[in-house]
Design brief:
By secondary structure, this protein is an alpha/beta fold. The chain contains 19 helices and twelve strands. It folds into three domains: 142 residues, NusB-like (N-utilizing Substance Protein B Homolog, Chain A, Orthogonal Bundle); 55 residues, Sun protein, domain 3 (Alpha-Beta Plaits); 196 residues, 3-Layer(aba) Sandwich (Rossmann fold). The longest helix has 19 residues.
Length: 443
C-alpha cells in the first residue's frame, strides 16, 4: 500500500496528492480481486503515522471511486484513445473523477494534485496524460455526463446483470434501491439495554453537541457519522454499531431466559450480543473463520456479556455439536451482500451473477444441517443481507418443500411487499437491505 518508493517528485503525506496515491493503490488492489476493507486495513498498518484527516481522505476517495466506478469507467473509456495498461494509473484517474464530481468548486486543486500523484507512477511518465485527460473532462463535462446518463451501468453505477435482476424483482422501486446502493451509509447504534437506554445515551450526545435521534427503544441514528471512539458510552459498552435493519434479527427469535441458543455464523458477534442483551440465554456462537471468530469474545467483553465461542463450520455437526438440541437458532448465512453495497462498494464489481448459485448451494446446506439440531417446537431465523430472491424467498420455499416439519412463522410488517415467503427489507435512508424468514419446527 506504499506509494512508489522512488517517486519522480516527492509528495507530502498531508497532501491531497498523497491521499489520491494511496486511494489509487487500494482501488487497484480491488481490481486485482482483493477486499477493500482488508486493503485499507493493510494501508493503515503500513502507514501508522498517517493523520486521521488523511486516513479519512484516503477512505473517502477509495470508497467514492468504487461507488461511482460504473460512471468513472464509462467516462475514462470516452476520454482515452486506447485502454490504460497501468491499473494504478486507471485507479488514480477514477479517484480524481470522483472528487471532481463531488467537489466541483475545487476542480483546479483536484487536477493539480492528481497530476502530482501521477508523478509517482511509471517514473513520472503519466503526468502529461493525466493532466490532459482531466482537463479534457472538465471542458467536455456536460456532453460526457449526458452520454453517461444514457448508459445503464454508468447511470445507475451497478453492473448490468445486477440492474436487470433488481428491475425484474422490484418493478416499482428498483431505481430507488440502486440509488440507495450508491449513497453513503447511515451510522446506527444499538443501545445495550442491560446498561443504559436510548434516552440516557441521547442526553450524553446532546451534551457533546452530537446530533442524533432515536429510531426505536434501542436504536439511535447519528446524523453525521464520526469515529466510534468519540461516541460517549461506546468504550464503556453502552453502545454497539449495528445497522437498524440488522437489529431486527434478534427480537424476531423471541428468546427467553434459560433457552439454549445457537448463532451459527456469528462473527463478528453483533447479533450474538443483541441476543444476550435481550435475555439470559445459553448461547453458542460459531463461525467457520477462526480469525473472525476471535473477534466475538472481544466484542462481548466490552459489552459485559459472555457466551461459548467456537471456530467451526456449522455444516459439519460432528466437529462441534454435543447432541443437545437448540430451542432457537440464528442462521445469518454467507450471501452476496447485495443489500449492503453502500458499505462495501467493491462487492458490486467483484461479484459475478454466477456466484449466486454457489451462495445458494451453501445456504441450502447450512439450513439442512441446522434443522437437524433444532428442537421440535423450536424456531430458526434465516437471514441474509441480500436483495436477490435466489438467496432469500426462493431459498426458503425450496427448504420448506424439502422439510415437511417446517412451518413459516410471521416476521412482522414492513419492508418491500413480495409474493414470496419471508420479510424483505430494501435499503432505505435509515437501514440497509436484509431478508428474514422465521421457520418453526413442528412436533
Amino acid at each position: 500500500m506504499a506509494p512508489n518508493p522512488m517517486p519522480a517528485e516527492p509528495i507530502s503525506p498531508e497532501s491531497l496528492a498523497y491521499a489520491l496515491d494511496l486511494a489509487a493503490t487500494a482501488v487497484a488492489a480491488v481490481f486485482a480481486g482483493r477486499n477493500l476493507d482488508a486493503t485499507l486495513a493493510a494501508c493503515w498498518r503500513t502507514h501508522p503515522g498517517l493523520a486521521a484527516a488523511s486516513r479519512g481522505a484516503v477512505q473517502d476517495l477509495a470508497y467514492g471511486a468504487l461507488r461511482r466506478y460504473g460512471r468513472g469507467d464509462f467516462l475514462l473509456n470516452r476520454l482515452l484513445r486506447e485502454p490504460l495498461k497501468d491499473p494504478r494509473l486507471r485507479a488514480l484517474l477514477l479517484a480524481a473523477l470522483y472528487r471532481l464530481a463531488v467537489r466541483p468548486e475545487d476542480a483546479h486543486t483536484t487536477v493539480d494534485q492528481a497530476v502530482a500523484a501521477a508523478a509517482t507512477i511509471g517514473r513520472g511518465n503519466f503526468k502529461a496524460l493525466s493532466n490532459a485527460l482531466l482537463r479534457n473532462y472538465l471542458r467536455q463535462r456536460a456532453v460526457l455526463e449526458a452520454a453517461a446518463d444514457s448508459d445503464p451501468t454508468a447511470r445507475y453505477q451497478h453492473p448490468a446483470w445486477w440492474i436487470g435482476t433488481l428491475r425484474e424483482n422490484y418493478p416499482s422501486d428498483w431505481e430507488e434501491i440502486l440509488a440507495a446502493g450508491n449513497a453513503r451509509p447511515p451510522l446506527t447504534l444499538r443501545v445495550n439495554r442491560r446498561r443504559s437506554d436510548a434516552a440516557a445515551c441521547l442526553a450524553g450526545f446532546r451534551d457533546l453537541g452530537i446530533a442524533a435521534r432515536a429510531l426505536d427503544e434501542t436504536a439511535i441514528l447519528v446524523e453525521r457519522p464520526l469515529p466510534v471512539e468519540r461516541l460517549p458510552g461506546f468504550v464503556e459498552g453502552l453502545l454497539s454499531v449495528q445497522d437498524w435493519g440488522a437489529q431486527r434479527a434478534a427480537p424476531l427469535l423471541e428468546v427467553r431466559d434459560g433457552m439454549r441458543v445457537l448463532d451459527a455464523c456469528a462473527a463478528p458477534g453483533g447479533k450474538s450480543a443483541h441476543l444476550l442483551e435481550l435475555a439470559d440465554v445459553d448461547l453458542l456462537a460459531l463461525d467457520a473463520d477462526a480469525v473472525r471468530a476471535a473477534r466475538i469474545p472481544e466484542n462481548l467483553r466490552r459489552l459485559g456479556l459472555r457466551a461459548e465461542v467456537r471456530a467451526a463450520d456449522c455444516r459439519k455437526l460432528e466437529a462441534w455439536w454435543d447432541g443437545r438440541p437448540f430451542e432457537r437458532i440464528l442462521a445469518d448465512v454467507p450471501c452476496s451482500a447485495s443489500g449492503v453495497v453502500r458499505r462495501h462498494p467493491d462487492i458490486k464489481w467483484l461479484r459475478r451473477e454466477t456466484d449466486l448459485a454457489g451462495f445458494a448451494r451453501s445456504q441450502a446446506q447450512i439450513l439442512d444441517a441446522l434443522w437437524r439440531v433444532l428442537a421440535p417446537g423450536g424456531r430458526m431465523l434465516y437471514c441474509t443481507c441480500s436483495l436477490f430472491p435466489q438467496e432469500n424467498a426462493l431459498q426458503v420455499a425450496a427448504f420448506a418443500a424439502r422439510h415437511a416439519d417446517a412451518r413459516l412463522a410471521p416476521t412482522g410488517a414492513g419492508g418491500a411487499a413480495t409474493r414470496q415467503p419471508g420479510w424483505q427489507l430494501t435499503p432505505q435512508a435509515e437501514h440497509d437491505g436484509f431478508y428474514y424468514a422465521l421457520l418453526q419446527k413442528l412436533g
